[in-house]
Amino acid sequence: MIIDFPGTKGEIEESSSAHRYHSSLIIKYKNTKILIDFGTKNNPLLIDRINECDLILITHAHPDHYIWTRDEENRIKIPVYLTGDTLDYGKYKPPAYRIIESDKKYNFKDLEIMAYDVIHSIKCPAVGYKIKGDKTIVYAPDILDFERDKGIVLKDTFALIADGSSLNINMARRRGEKLFGHTRIKTVIGWCKKYDIGHLIITHCGKQIVEMDKEELTGKLQEYSEGKVDVTIAYDGYSVEI
Ligand SMILES: [Zn+2]
Ligand SMILES: [Zn+2]
């Protein structure tokens, strides 16, 4: 399985040469190629490659993940899978949209895919995706936590690709009974230790990661992971084979 990161930035104004474009992911496995998320500030190299993919999966309707919330985009001809909530939120709709339901298994050519609800936004309910080829990855670029038991969601996961909005600053918010926002990389490293995930790749980088001194960041990641989790900060153009 080859995983490409055309963009690795969250919904922030700050930017660097490493994190310029909104987070998205291309997964290539055997004869299957999928893209996850296509935000407003997308990598210009992406549009020419999109129609080579079999399909697009969308995590939620925030514009850094889903261009159709704000813009009409009719160049994309391949099917775009999204939840009913995401479709209803956007001002525009992808030309070939398909509804995907959470907690339901889908087989797309060589890949098995399941969407899981995540706690992130009250207005824009979000999902993360568990994707199975010969190895299993979980992609959750915007997440405070999973709705379901992480023992189930993260079972047998080889690599978790998750939210880099914050290294260690609390970004959880509360409205009434409801929590929303983003988790911290420090917390996600804890999930990896607990559920025995050896590889963590950070994307959707926020202000703290984009602006932090690289040596200081490496030191913090080593301190949190205690040698038990291999943590990589993805950057625009990063590609990895697992
Ligand atoms: Zn986002
Ligand atoms: Zn979001």
Ions, cofactors, ligands: which are bound? zinc ion
Give the count of helical stretches: 6
Low-confidence stretches: none
Distance N terminus to C terminus? 6 Å
Order of helices and strands: EEEHEEHEEEEEEHEEEHEHHEE
Helix residue percentage: 10-25%
- Supply the CATH superfamily name: Ribonuclease Z/Hydroxyacylglutathione hydrolase-like
Residue-averaged pLDDT:
97
Question: What is the secondary structure topology, with strand pairs?
Answer:
Blueprint: E1 2-7, E2 24-29, E3 32-36, H1 46-50, E4 55-57, E5 80-82, H2 84-89, E6 97-99, E7 105-108, E8 111-119, E9 126-132, E10 136-140, E11 145-146, H3 150-153, E12 159-164, E13 171-175, E14 178-182, H4 185-194, E15 199-205, H5 207-211, H6 214-225, E16 230-233, E17 238-241
Parallel strand pairs: 3-4, 4-5, 5-6, 10-12, 12-15, 15-16
Antiparallel strand pairs: 1-2, 1-17, 2-3, 7-8, 8-9, 8-11, 9-10, 13-14
